[in-house]
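Quick one: examine this chain and its C-alpha cells and tell me how the chain folds. Here goes:
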Amino acid sequence: MSLKMFKFLAGALAISISLSCATQAIAEGKKILHIASYHDAYSWTHRIDKGIKKGLKQGLKNMPHEYKVYYMDTKRKNKSEQVKAAAEEAKKLIKTWDPDVVITSDDNATKYVASPLRDTGRKFVFTGVNNEPSKYSLPNENVTGILERFHASDGIQLLKMLKPGSKKIVMLSDDSITGKLISGQLEPALRKQNVDLLGVHYTGSFEEWKSLIKKYQNKADAFYVVVYFTMKDKEGNAVSGPEVLKWTREHSSLPEIGFWPFVTDHGGLAAIGVDGVEQGYVAARTAAKIIKGLSPSKMPPRITNKSILYINAKRARELNITIPEELAESANLVEK
C-alpha cells in the first residue's frame, strides 16, 4: 500500500470515528435533572414540573434530551436529618447521572443541593425560591434562577371583591421555613394596605392552630392562610395539610385566602399567587439557553409576572358569598 493511500484511509477512518461519536452524542441527547424540594403529588410541584416539560419541549425543539425528576419530599419528611439525607441522595444522583443542567425547585433543594455545588462547575437553575438568593450565596457564574414573589395587595383586592367591607385580617402559617419566609415578606406589605392586621401567627401545633381559629371568629373578617403542612397533634404525630384545612373549614365562618391552589383544593375559599407552571416554564427555557452555550452569569435571577386565581364555589356558598361575575370569568372555579 502506498503512503498516499495509507494517509487517505487513515483520514477517512478518523472522519468516520468522529462522525460516529457525534452521532452517538446527538442520539444520547442532553440531560436535565429536576431536584424538587417536595413530593410529586403536591400541586405546586406538579405545576412546576408541568411547566418544565413544556419549556424543555419548546426550548430544546429538535434537540434530543432526557428529563428526570428526583423528589426530596421535605414537606412531609421535614426533620433536619431527613432533609439533609434527601439532599445527599440528590447529590449522588447528580454525580452518577451527570446531567447537563440541574433545575432545583423551591428553597430546600436550592439551599441544600444547588448552593453546596455552586463552585463545582455544575450548571444550576433554581425556581420557586422565596428567600433572597444571597442567603444561599447565589447567584454565581454557574447558577441563576427564578424567584417566587407574592403581592399582598392582590389578596386584599380579591378578599374585598368577595366580601366587601373586609378590613380585619389574621395571617396564619405553620412554623416551617417557607411559612416564616412568606409571612415575613407579606407582613410589611399588608401593613401598607388599607386593612387592620390583627395578628401574624406561626405554629407547629395543631391544637394552637385550632385555638387561633376559634379566637378570631368574632374579631376578624378573614384569614390569610399561608402554609399548614408541618403541623403536629398532641402526641407529636404529623397532621396532613388537607386535614388541617378540613377542620378549619368545619369550625370557621371566616373566608380563607391563600396563595397556592392547594388552599382551594383543601376546601378554602380562594387563592391568588404565582403561577407554578410559569415558574417551571421560565426555568426550563433558561436551562435550554445554558445547554446551547449561554452562561448563567449572563442571565440574572428574575421574577415571573403571571398570577393565577382560584375560587372554591362550594366554600363560597357555605359562607353565603356571591362570586362577582368578573371573578367567575377569570378564575379557576373548583367544587371542593
